[in-house]
Amino acid sequence: MPNAPLTVTPVLQTASGQTVKLAPVTIPANEVRSVDINAAVADPANGISAPFYGSIDIQYNAKFHGNLFAAEMLGIMGQPVMFHLDPTGLDPDYTSGSIDGFWWNRHTGVQDVLVLSNNASTADTAHLVLSDAVGHQWASDYTIAPHSIVRLNTLELTSAAKFTSDFGSIHIVAGHPGSFDVVYFMYDASKGFSALMKMFYYDAHTTKAEHAWIRDEGWMLWAPMLALQTPDPALLFPASVRLQPIIFLENLASKPGNLQMRVYWRSASGSGKTNSQTVTLKAGEVQKIDVASQFKDLPSNANWATVSILSNTDPDQIVAMAASYDATGRYGAQTPFSDQLSAHWEGGKWQVDDTHDSLITVGNGGRRDTRFQMTFHYVTDKGPGDYVIEQKLAKDEQSFVDLGKLIRNQTPDVHGNVFPSTITSGSYGLRDLNDRIGNIFEGKVITDKTYGDASYGCQACCGVSGGTISGSGSD
Fold it and tell me: Which helix (H) or strand (E) element contains residue 77?
């Protein structure tokens, strides 16, 4: 993050073809500012006409693209339906590949939204392919105007295609994929269920050599915040809730993928790891793994897990996502998989108050032991302050931070400082103190006691390129 204020300008690109530039927002270093999009849409001065949805561009001038962290929170007011959307920047070097994810017809009554956003200044065509778990396919092309979106209902399409499974894959190929943003989410307001099915970007030109952090054993993925069968009391779920963690997998490679999967678990009384399990995916195959059935040595009282996947494929050819909900869908949490390790992560809002808590995992995915430093930034009426954690992590070890406990218990940091008891939010950064390339990954959930919701979020690796961040959404 920058050491000086940064001015950003949100720009709304509506489905009716309007471009509405909102008032600039100045963000002091290491602080967080919010923009109420609903208020902007309702303001007659902006002249926004129906339909009231579209995409958002966030424009700014900075030395590095990574100087700004941004996220969009989309939800239904007064309902436990909330989605954390991570925006993406334009990538002119990403010219060949696909955007991939999973559709999931979890239960009757679920509604879903697939948003295809063309952030370029020229029209483009998106080729959409939906597949089910037994190989049936449905495909269609969508031509999308500059700075415009197409909004689809995927479950209606899979039903019309007479798919026989309750899950499958989403595959999108565009002429210029580096200019596309894709968002897919599901919800059932009557049951209080919501799930953001994160989409992943496969660059056909990516090689193992370009992944400087890659492990000696091969290409690896980590999911750092998988909620297990017995929920952590910090999630504030009812005591009777039992979660059903699952993992979605897809092999984009043209050959079988052999995966070595392992769960690093944590409970209130200890931590450990399961035996490694082998999962084989045929070329193009999609699978849904039941975690409790696959890892029979996983303790039933474990609360959290980091799941690792070691693959014999090239980078990005295995798509993976984890979700964990109870039988009703009312309570749950999600965590995406990522192969990203770094020496420096920044951004992200933490929140702790009467109804919220922030839970964070830091993991060492590198080749050797390391030491990390996590700095929480906050602002009081006396000015800015920091709270600093430092800890050694062995290879494959994770550290778990309950920010609410640190504040409530007035736990001193490495410098003997404590959080002000009245502080409720701020930003944070993470550094690997031992390695220039970096060994660490991170994940975070923010719990909401009001609705029993746990929203996943993570930091962004500090970048070295300029550009515009764009996000997609609909209300």
Answer: none
Q: What is the mean pLDDT of residues 29-49?
A: 85
Q: How far apart are CA 155 and CA 112, in angstroms?
A: 7
319 with 354, same domain: the answer is: no
SS3 call for 13: strand
Distance CA 422, CA 406 (A): 13
CB 359 within 8 A of CB 232: yes
Is residue 440 within 8 A of residue 362, CB to CB? The reply is yes
What is the rounded distance in angstroms from the CA atom of residue 345 to the CA atom of residue 338? 14
DSSP 276: P
Count structural domains, the chain.
Answer: 3
User: What phi, psi does 234 have (nearest 5°)?
Assistant: -65, -20
309 and 369 assigned to the same domain: no
> Does residue 453 carry a pLDDT above 70?
no
Length of the chain: 475
* Claim to verify: residue 315 and residue 381 sit in the same structural domain: no
> Among 462, 463, 323, 341, which Cα is nearest to 396's?
341
Q: Which of 445, 372, 360, 362 is nearest to 403 (CA)?
A: 360
Tell which residue, 3, 6, 119, 1, has the closest CA to residue 61.
6
pLDDT at 81 over 80: no
Lowest mean pLDDT among 55-69, 92-106, 447-461: 447-461
Nearest CA among 371, 363, 324 for reference residue 221: 363
Residue 13 is assigned to a structural domain of this protein? yes
Last-in-domain residue among 336, 361, 388: 336
DSSP string, 371-392: EEEEEEEEEETTEEEEEEEEEE
Residue 123 identity (one-letter amino acid): A
**Do β-strands 383-393 and 370-380 pair in parallel, antiparallel, or remain unpaired?**
antiparallel
Q: Is a pLDDT exceeding 60 seen at residue 463?
A: no
Range(s) of the domain holding residue 394: 344-458
Give the separation between CA 57 and CA 89, rounded to whole angstroms: 9
Both structure tokens of 260: 């070595």
Compute φ and ψ for 132, nearest 5 degrees.
Answer: -100, -175
Contact predicate 231/243, CB 8 Å = yes
Please state, in angstroms and rounded to a whole number, the distance separating the CA atoms of residues 217 and 380: 47
